[in-house]
Amino acid sequence: MLFALTACGSQAADDSSNDQQQEQQDTTTNESNEFRVGMECAYAPNNWQESEATDSNVPVENVAGAYAEGYDVQIAKAIAEGLGKELVIVKLSWDGLIDALNQGQIDAIIAGMMDTAERRESINFSEPYRETTYGLMVLADSPYLNATSIQDFSGAAVLGQQGTALDDVIEQIEGVDHLSPVGSVPDMISRLQQGTCDAIVINVENAQGYLASNPNFRLVTFDEGSGFTLPAKGSCVGLRKSDNELLDQINTILSGIDDDARAAMWQAAVDGQPQ
């Protein structure tokens, strides 16, 4: 009798679990009129947060009175339009993006995320929508200002962002003092301003705004073969492994955005980013 009761209880639990899974599936991109996108809203010119609505920005669902803007936002708008869905932006910490995606809180990550082998263990990626290179940001009086290779930073205290290639690549510098990473690019900028590190790893394409707002900063770039080796060409859209149809749709949409249109989006983001 005890066995029979246990079996019934197990079946009921399975049925309940199946119902919950089905309910969650019914709220994903394929069943909803929304295209829910996660990003930090703190990584200009890719994405940042504003306090006033414009014709270009998008409300942030989980932050009252906030609006998201930037290159990632414009790419997300183009994808949402191509899908025939309403774009919803959700502000999340970098280290919470993949969990939020796999738990169904969002439908995609569009946040300047690279396609890496480690991340591919849990999610899929689109084709790149923005290529990138890395450099090192230093202070104007830095002894590393005239470096021509990343190896010239041997012995330097270098800082990156936790959970990103901005931190992972630091190990490519022989003899580097690899500092414990911080949670966001603004945190990296703050640490460099305070002089608690010698250099921070930064996307070269993203550096203009930081240089403009910090006159004491300088960007050190490297010729091919002397710089960092990156795990991927650039930023991709992150998607659940089960969303193969959505992946195909997004790749088709991205392929329809020509180089001139992407360049115009990027320049608008660079020009409009907060200083």
Report on the architecture of this protein.
Helix content is 34%, strand content 22%. It is an alpha/beta fold. β2 and β3 (47-50) form a beta hairpin. The protein has 2 domains: 26-130 and 233-272, Periplasmic binding protein-like II (D-Maltodextrin-Binding Protein, domain 2, 3-Layer(aba) Sandwich); 133-220, D-Maltodextrin-Binding Protein, domain 2 (3-Layer(aba) Sandwich), CATH 3.40.190. The strands form 3 sheets. Strands 1, 6, 7, 8, 9 and 15 form a 6-stranded mixed beta sheet that branches. Mean pLDDT is 90; it is low at 1-29. α2 (71-83) packs across α8 (244-255).
Residue ranges: pLDDT <50 for 5 or more in a row?
1-29
> What is the end-to-end distance?
72 Å
Number of separate strands: 15
The CATH homologous superfamily of the largest domain is termed: Periplasmic binding protein-like II
The tally of domains stands at 2
Shape estimate: globular
Helical stretch count? 9
The Cα radius of gyration reads 21 Å
Biggest sheet character: 6 strands, mixed
| Class by alpha and beta content | alpha/beta
- Strand percentage lies at 15-25%
User: In CATH, what is the class of the largest domain?
Assistant: Alpha Beta
* Average predicted local confidence, pLDDT: 90
Quickly give the CATH architecture of the largest domain.
Answer: 3-Layer(aba) Sandwich
Short description:
By secondary structure, this protein is α/β, with parallel strands linked by helices. The chain contains 9 helices and 15 strands.
SSE arrangement:
Elements lengths: L1 H24 L8 E6 L2 E2 L3 E4 L7 E2 L7 E3 L1 H13 L2 E6 L5 H6 L5 E7 L2 H4 L3 E2 L4 E2 L2 E6 L17 E3 L5 H4 L8 E2 L6 H10 L4 E5 L3 H7 L3 E4 L13 E6 L4 H12 L3 H14 L3
Helix pairs in contact: 2-8
